[in-house]
């Protein structure tokens, strides 16, 4: 991100603990400069925020709790966000809340070309996370929370699973390969953030994308070209070609049931999915393999056989 990009940081005090203030502002500094820093809540209460706000030059916006609930705070934050948007003084917003009520605000700001950083506690609903360009989990960026160590736990906590990340990376590489393009590490990071706004290598206990992918994506190989890290697939297509040819030979040189072929590949390569290779139909993928030719709608054979 360009270090000169200007951001409005708007914090919902009803849904965020003051212990995260330092981590919030440090994270925003990775994207640009916080030109607005405002926090919304009822400051007539002794809520312990005073020192945190003074130390970080954050402007408290008073919102009385006229009724039970927090709609007044939400409304004030939304109105301010729209006023700032129309002022034309910022390039993006950082919305800090664990409340899904700001989902529509995030979407509306993006409609106007704003880059929206979302931050919230682990309990933040997925709707708000996905409405932002990127989303950061406060417990993780503050170092307070140990990252979950299994995909089952990650799924429970609303964090994108490692298996989903690996499948996405494989698909990115395969799609580029089909177009005769190399896949650089920067492109992978950008596309993962587009696919999963809450993607952050810190969610998995890492500080660098390359290290995370090397440990998590066994099917991916890494090389250096022109001082750039380039990704490719280690395997699998070659493995599949070998498996398919072996099955065809065992069937006498021709296969007339593609469904059985698909099942056999899945037995030998658990998790096999043609979408990981840029295809949405099994038959089309199989016919794309070198050394294989079609002899009918549901039939294939080895070339020169």
Q: Can you give me a brief rundown of this structure?
A:
With 305 residues, this protein is an alpha/beta fold.
Spatial shape: elongated
Strand order of the largest sheet: 3-2-1-4-5-6
Number of helices: 13
Distance between the termini: 55 Å
The portion of residues assigned to helices is 40-55%
Structural class, by secondary structure, is: alpha/beta
Q: Supply Rg.
A: 25 Å
Question: How many strands in all?
Answer: 12
Low-confidence stretches: none
SS strand fraction: 15-25%
Query: What is the H-and-E element order?
Result: EHEHEHEHEHEHHHEHHEEHEHHEE
**What is the arithmetic mean of pLDDT?**
86
Main sheet specs: 6 strands, parallel
Characteristic key phrases:
alpha/beta, three-stranded antiparallel β-sheet, 20% strand, six-stranded parallel β-sheet, 305 residues, 41% helix
Summarize the SSE layout with pairings.
Blueprint: E1 6-12, H1 21-29, E2 33-41, H2 50-55, E3 59-62, H3 71-87, E4 92-96, H4 103-111, E5 115-120, H5 126-131, E6 134-137, H6 138-141, H7 151-156, H8 162-178, E7 183-184, H9 185-195, H10 209-216, E8 220-225, E9 228-233, H11 237-250, E10 254-255, H12 258-268, H13 282-288, E11 292-296, E12 299-302
Helix pairs in contact: 8-9, 11-12
How would you characterize this protein structure?
It is a single chain. This protein is an alpha/beta fold and 305 residues long. It has helices spanning 21-29, 50-55, 71-87, 103-111, 126-131, 138-141, 151-156, 162-178, 185-195, 209-216, 237-250, 258-268, 282-288, and strands spanning 6-12, 33-41, 59-62, 92-96, 115-120, 134-137, 183-184, 220-225, 228-233, 254-255, 292-296, 299-302. It has a six-stranded parallel beta sheet, with helices on both faces. It has a three-stranded antiparallel beta sheet with strand order 7-9-8. The protein is elongated.
